[in-house]
Amino acid sequence: MAWRSQLSRNLKELRILFCQTSPTSASARSFVEQNYKDLKTLNPKFPILIRECSGIEPQIWARYDMGVEKGVRLEGLTEPQILKALEDLVKAGASLKA
C-alpha cells in the first residue's frame, strides 16, 4: 500500500465526515480508528481533518491543487471499500498533476 505515503504529494487536504452515533457511520468511525495513526505517521505534516457532526451522512473529501475537490459518500461501504475509495482519490490526484 505504497499509495498511503502519497497523500501529501497528491492531495492538499483530506476531510472525513461522519456522525458519532449513527449506525450508517459505523464503518467510517472504524476506518478512522484503524487507519488514522498509520496515515498520519506516513504523512506527518499533511492535514487530515476528522469532522464529527450529529446526523450527517459519512463522506470523505479530497482537496487537490487549484481548489479542486472530490468527494465520496461512504454510506453502506465497508472499511476495505472505504480504503479503496481513499486510494482512488489519491490516485486521481496524481492524474490531475500530469
TrEMBL record:
Q: Which UniProt keywords apply?
A: Electron transport, Membrane, Mitochondrion, Mitochondrion inner membrane, Respiratory chain, Transport
Identify its membrane topology class.
Peripheral membrane protein
Q: Which SMART domains match?
A: L51_S25_CI-B8 (SM00916)
Q: Does the keyword Mitochondrion apply?
A: yes
Is Membrane one of the keywords UniProt gives this record? yes
Residue ranges of every copy of the Ribosomal protein/NADH dehydrogenase domain listed in the record: 20-93
What Pfam families does its record include? Answer: L51_S25_CI-B8 (PF05047)
Q: What subcellular locations does the record give?
A: Mitochondrion inner membrane
Q: Which InterPro entries match?
A: NADH_Ub_cplx-1_asu_su-2, Ribosomal_mL43/mS25/NADH_DH, Thioredoxin-like_sf
- Where does the UniProt entry say this protein principally localizes? mitochondrion
Tree of life domain: Eukaryota
> Which Gene3D superfamilies does the entry mention?
Glutaredoxin
According to its UniProt entry, what is the function of this protein?
Accessory subunit of the mitochondrial membrane respiratory chain NADH dehydrogenase (Complex I), that is believed not to be involved in catalysis. Complex I functions in the transfer of electrons from NADH to the respiratory chain. The immediate electron acceptor for the enzyme is believed to be ubiquinone.
Which PANTHER family does the entry mention? NADH DEHYDROGENASE [UBIQUINONE] 1 ALPHA SUBCOMPLEX SUBUNIT 2 (PTHR12878:SF0), NADH-UBIQUINONE OXIDOREDUCTASE B8 SUBUNIT (PTHR12878)
Family statement drawn from the similarity comment of this UniProt entry: Belongs to the complex I NDUFA2 subunit family.
Please report the name of this protein according to its UniProt entry.
Ribosomal protein/NADH dehydrogenase domain-containing protein
Organism listed in the record: Hibiscus sabdariffa (roselle)
